[in-house]
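With this grant's support, we have settled on a layout for protein records. A representative record follows, to show the layout.
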Amino acid sequence: MVAADRPLPAHSTVRRVARWCLDMATTLLRYAAQRIPTYRRDREESPGEPPDFDRELPGDPATLQRPREGIGPLFHRSYWVYVTDESLRGDQLISYILAEPNQVAPTEMASFETMGGQPARNLDVGNELIVRLPGPWNGPVRVIDRTPTSFRFATLQGHMEAGEIEFRTSTDDRGFLEFRIESWARSGDPLFHLLYGRLLIGRELQQHMWAQFCRRVAAVSGGVRMSNPASSTQRLEPTP
C-alpha cells in the first residue's frame, strides 16, 4: 500500500487538482441536468442491526478506518433496484461487477483503481483499492467479504467515511431480482461531516452516484428495470 505521507511531485499535484476541478464540475452539471429520479423511503424502513464493527477483519487492522474513528452520527444508507426477466443470475451479476467494477460505475464520479493506479479487476477478499472521487477525497477500501451473491468493503485510513458498504443481490417473493447497496458509516473528517451532515451537498451527490450505479447494474443484468432506484437513510446518534 502506498504510504499516505509520501510527497507527490509538483506535476502530479497539478494534475490531481485539475482532475478534481474537472470532475467536480462534470458531476455538478450532470447532477443538475440528468438527475436520476429516486424514490426515497427514509421514514419507511427500520435501520436494523449494524454489523459488529469491532470484529476481526482480513488484512492489517492498523490501516482500517472503523466507525469509532469517524465524526458525527452513524448513517445507515441503502440504495436498491428491482429487475425481472434478467439474463444474469444474482451470483453472475456479482461476479460481473467484481471482474471489472468500472463497467458499471459512473466513472466521472467514482472510478475503481488499484493502489498502483490501474483499473481494478478481479477483486477478491483482502484486495485493497482506491475509489477515485471528485473533490479533495479518495476512497481507499479493502474487500473484507465475498459470497456468491455479495461482497463488502471496509474503509481504510484517509477515506472520506469510516465504516462498511455491502453490494448484494437477492430474489424477492415476486421472483424479481434485487440489487442493493447498503452502508453503515460516519464521516471520516470534519469537511465531509460539514458537507454531508450539515449542508447535505455530499448526501445528494452520493445518492446520485449510487443511483446511477444501480441503474447501470440493472442494465447489464439484461432484464427489465421495474422502477427507478429507491433509497433510504437513517441517522443514528453515536452512543457515548
